[in-house]
Amino acid sequence: MSKKPLTILLANPRGFCAGVERAIEIVERAIEKYGPPVYVRHEIVHNRFVVEALQAKGAVFVEELDEVPDGVPVIFSAHGVPKQVPTEAEERGLLYVDATCPLVSKVHREAERHHRDGLQIVLIGHAGHPEVIGTMGQLPDGSIVLVEDAQQAEALEVRDPERLAYITQTTLSVDDTVEIIEVLQRRFPRISGPKKEDICYATTNRQLAVKSISERCDALLVVGAPNSSNSARLVEVARKLGCERAMLVQRAVDVDWQDLEGIKVLGITAGASAPEVLVEEVISACRERFEVSIEEVTVTSEDVVFKLPRLLTANAAA
To answer: Residue 43, SS3?
Structure first.
């Protein structure tokens, strides 16, 4: 029985961003330099495959610092941590390496600057996400108020409408965030924003790539973890553009092939914390069932690289 033809539109950019690559390399370098075990507070990035690969090399993942024994190195995840976490590590004499993405650190510095200037800060983001917890934890309680959607922005009450600034989580939907900012700017015309938007280049580029293929797809698979904010946003972006069969899958085994019955064009992309090997795994699974042809759709190229902490570079070791 001959296989039915399937065109795969492969969105590009997809998968790992510079912050994720840096965070993973920090864990690998720390294991090489200090030997296992190296402890990591929270999943280094939101991807089970990545976490398990690092566990196999000697990383131990914990949720809180009090789970880390004395005398072993600890790494803080790419999402960033509240200020009290490194303070507690220092008080205990723990050697720690901060793998916070530099673009998240940029948001932290903005928050500190606005606070110094006496402004109340509105953080646009998702409650409970580690990045939001880390950003709100940069300042004393009550300094930052969280807004999750346009409705909350409409209802927001502030101390002084003249003394206000906004910052955002780096992994949000670009379109949804624009809508929320428009509400804030209409209600509080004097509100200050970032000089350069807080949503990171990788989130923006992956959403643009999904937009470029969504209207041509019968279905779209986003390879990523259920707790990955940027991956979940890619599904939302595709659905908003009419690709109702947009689905998040962690691996090929999660694909619901019955849901893909009768499709001719399948879009595939990956969130910023999903490795390319998992995309290849999904494509291989498609080849088992269809006669596949692949069209890569590229909206931009990325060449961003972030430096490793000096503690882990060869010069520091020397």
So the answer is: coil
Any domain includes 306: no
pLDDT in tens, 171-202: 999 999 999 999 999 999 999 999 888 999 99
Q: What is the pTM of this model?
A: 0.94
Please check whether residue 236 lies inside any domain of the structure. Answer: yes
Q: Length of the chain in residues, anyone?
A: 318
Task: Report which secondary-structure segment, H or E, holds 10.
Answer: strand 4-12
- Number of domains, the chain: 3
Alpha-carbon gap, residue 146 to 124, rounded angstroms: 6
CATH code for position 176: 3.40.1010.20
Tokens representing 220 are 């779209």
For the annotated catalytic residues, the residue numbers are: 131
Residue 60 belongs to domain spanning: 18-101
- Alpha helix (H) residue ranges in 38-162: 48-57, 84-91, 102-116, 130-136, 150-155
CA 186 to CA 164: how far, in whole Å? Answer: 13
